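DM from R.C. (forwarded with permission)

"hey, sorry to bug you on a friday — could you get me a structure for this? deadline for the figure draft is monday and I only need the backbone to look sensible"
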Amino acid sequence: MSDSTLHEWVNGKSVPSGKHGRSLGTLVGALEKLAKRKGNTYPRYAAHQWEEMRLAAWRHRQAGRAGQGRVVCRVLGEMPTETDCYQERPELRERLEAAAAGGTAVLGQVVTGMGGVGKTQLAARYARTAGDTGQVDVLLWVTAASHAAVTDAYAGAAAQLLGTSREDPQAASVFLNWLRLAPGAKDGGARPGARWLLVLDDVPHTAAVRGLWPPNVPHGQTLVTTRNRHASFLGSGRRRIEIDRFTTEEAVAYLTAKLAGLGRRDDPAQIAGLAEDLGRLPLALSQAVPFMNSRHLDCSAYRKRLANRVRTLTSVLPTDTGLSDDQNKTVAAAWDLSIELADQQPPQGLARPMLHLLSLLDPNGIPAPALTSPPVLAHLTALRVRASETTAHASQLSDDDIDDATDALWNLHQFSLIDHDPSTPDRAVRIHQLVQRAVHERLPGDDRHHTARTAADALTAAWPEIERDTGLAAAFRANTAVLARYAEAALYRPAAHPVLDRAGTSLGRAGQVAAARDYYDHLTEQTCIHLGKDHPDTLMARHELARWRGEAGDVAGAANAFAEVFADRVRVLGDDHPDTLAARGNFTYYARGMAGDAAGAAVAFAELLEDQQRVVGNDHPDTLKLRNNLARFRGEAGDAAGAAEMFAELLEDQQRVLGDDDPDTLMTRNNLAYARGLAGDVTGAANAFAELLEDRVRVLGEDHPDTLVTRHNLAALRGMAGDAAGAAAAFAELLKDQQRVVGNDHPATLRVRGNLARWRGQAGDAAGAADAFAELLDAYLRVLGDGHPDTLTAWNYLALWRREAGDTAGAANTYVDLLTAQERVLGEDHPDALKTRHELARFRGETGDDGPGAG
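My reply, with the result:
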């Protein structure tokens, strides 16, 4: 070809076609190499002219005039290679494409998310697609670690596109000016612009791109990836797109494909389990599979290693030398830069220790009050004081000032290490489980112990004594469970931390009596291991285990357990120790009161009361609780009026000592009203319950178990007053709330179902009552077993209502089954067993049925 033809091509006066068009890329490459040869003066064209010729050819191809097929895009910068088994994320791709098609002048999309969620790979896939489909002519990829790195990348682009010297101080500005030019336009001699996409990857903060933001032009797109959520990234048309972990489906699909690529198959359930074990974090999933493959581990075997907290992440994931897919960071190190940046934000030095605390708590949600509690503030203050010894400008954190602690949380949120949402205070902070593990594993041993005790102190201090909010209480229990799992040994040095007992008590108060029993069974085992069988904390755990065994229906087992605890406390602590007296009282409660000997229980409690008053005084809370039990069993022994009088005297003392709104005071008001009802003053009892309901709603909340109990008692009094239909309606309404608050199988819910069935029967529907009790008995047997007092009560009512409905055979068989259970659980001489035997005999006499085995 002639020199004049080549000159026309280079200056855009004509466009090559045919075989010249097809071979243009090869030709230009050859001429560029020729131009660089030393002493060669043949080409009279600068580098920017060769670039201009390329752009002309690209536009020609894009317009379809050359008919040469695939569009060529000039790629500048080092784009990451696409990860093996790239997992398409349609929802995120659609959000990116929607932003790009939004019609705004600048398509500035800021992709944020924690380290390891796949921001870079998503950006690379989007960029490749844009280039391959002819959406852009020039693609520049910048690893934007610093202002200097971005400046250098721009200078390099100017050198490649425009022939500017890379060392020219104005090279970056020249490139930014070129970005402003529309395709084909010239400005002051600058070469024509092009359609472009500029990716700024992993920008640490806006200072890295200060003065270097790409321009707002219709022919350009900017895509930024960053862990930094600071608002300064937004504005000027830029939009944030938050990237989260893989969904369950995406994580399973990725692992399955990755394993298949290595010729391996595995149990789908184990693959799904591994995906969750690794928190569906793309980086962790991508590094786990080659580690498994190199050691010939299937998912099950690898999950066992991963679950062993004795092993660190560095021993169950690849090291720096074992990374694939051009990765340059291990999971353990993936968040180091984010932590460093967060810790540098004011108040400096607090983000890291706050993260240490978060690493031991529930990743699914940490209550806000715990993170600004006095123990946390004191912990941060101590670290600030220590830092001030080496940092001249470190300031001390005020013990009563939560602003700095809150700012530390926001700094962690800003760099995507946590999610902080104050609008959900029960679970205000969420954190990925692998971030937790990586952070905690790097703590020295002494710091781990101190951090764990501080976290436990924080939970204890912030835990509401009155659990109005069931969600908040559940969050505190969940956080205690995670803390115990991650740092259990620390919670027993030097003694069992109070938060351990608090969690168990909360379970029981929430009505989860079986769970409370199992919890204290584990706590007893652990205190015995860490502290010894005679340590007061071990005896405390045994005491609570016995208590919740009784609440779960094992009355005889509870009595025996309390007898053993009582004997050991006498031996270890002495007769008059308050804990010994408490065990004595609980033994009396179960061995006599719950065994049916109300009169004997009243006598024993009267004797215990004398010792209690002598040891701890009249106004001690334990003394007041003991008086409550004494009054209760006097009432059950038949002296309802005397019980009411005792409750009234107790109420006066509790109001004076504890206050009107203390839960124990409110409970005594409940018992007083109930006693008045038993004594015959149904109207007075109903009025008292109505007043109590208002106060319990105010103090405890509408959904508190004690509030629901008051509604339960009010409904029962309606029935006692003769309004069976009204009682049934009230129990039907209560049942809806009971099921919503605590679920269908909660013992309190089952009791409401029993009363609803009873009063429906009293209102005239005997057959309906029998059917309801039959269903209820099945639920009791499934949930509480055949020995629980509530189960036996439901059994008795089933027999009664079958009898009332005319089902004589069914009633007789039910009485037989009930008697068998009572004699086995309570003993043949228990009053309830004797009463059932009497009812069965009377029923058989009335029907002329001698019953099974007669003759």
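R.C.: lifesaver. DSSP finds 37 helices and eight strands in the chain.
me: no worries. Strands lie at 74-76, 107-112, 138-143, 196-201, 220-226, 239-242, 419-420, 429-430.
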